[in-house]
Known about the structure:
- By secondary structure, this protein is an alpha/beta fold.
- Helices cover 46% and strands 18% of the residues.
- The chain contains 13 helices and 11 strands.
- Strands 8-7-9-10-6-11 form a 6-stranded parallel sheet, sandwiched between helices.
- Helix 3 (35-44) packs parallel to helix 10.
- The longest helix has 17 residues, at 185-201.
Amino acid sequence: MMNKEHNEHMAVSGIPTDMKLLDIHEAARFLRVSEVSVRRYTKSGALRCLRVGGRRERRFEREDLEAFVGANSPARALAEAAKPIGAAQPTLGPADVAAPEFATIEGMPVPWGRHLCQLYETHRGRVQMTVPFLNDGLNAGDACFLIASEPARAHLIEALRRVRGDLGPDIEAGRLRVIDHAQNGSAMLAALDEAFGAAMEEGFGKLRLVGDMAWFLDQGLSGDELVNFETRYDRQIGHSYPIISLCLYDARRFSGIEILHALKSHADTFDLPLSRFLLR
């Protein structure tokens, strides 16, 4: 029965059922994810692959892909998401044997794979948490991403420079990456998935993101589009990488309804003292 179901899946994916090894493009089609995601799965050890040829290209056995699909079924994903912070996790491979790792944000231990929301009402509030968060990441050798439109970007960079000094070495080493915002939410999601996957390929084990979400307003996008973006980021990306994402909302620019939706789409924030993320 298993082989029959598998062959049907392969046929739907357009991949010959008698093929023993699949390349990364075919594996992505089988799993119905991007090639960047497949690279991320293999990099983390969650998905086994073989390396072939002088270019060490990835090849996949169908049995490994089937096992990965079973281990990451929607039912299992929901069960894992329901576990509280610090709950014991199942052992999936050698990389998962070590004790859970945390980043520290203003003295609070925050597990990797968290999508958080910060509200602020002054320029000082914008940098109060984010600059130490980025500076700690740069010191630790994490890949730190910043998304914001002007003048928020200039303000954040200048505040980080005052703490850290010359940012040139961090930029040249790929530790600090300023990403231009896209024209819409879908394009931004694709760009982030690609950027995070590339950083993992380069050997960065941990990622940090600061995004000042006023760029959505500056692009003339609607509140519904923003909610859609945050919801998709939370489900598709924010928990798929060893990353902590900190999304900033300027309370002076967003409506009360938009702020409410922002909080709803950052449920991880409620596992921590919420008051710490409400800044003047």
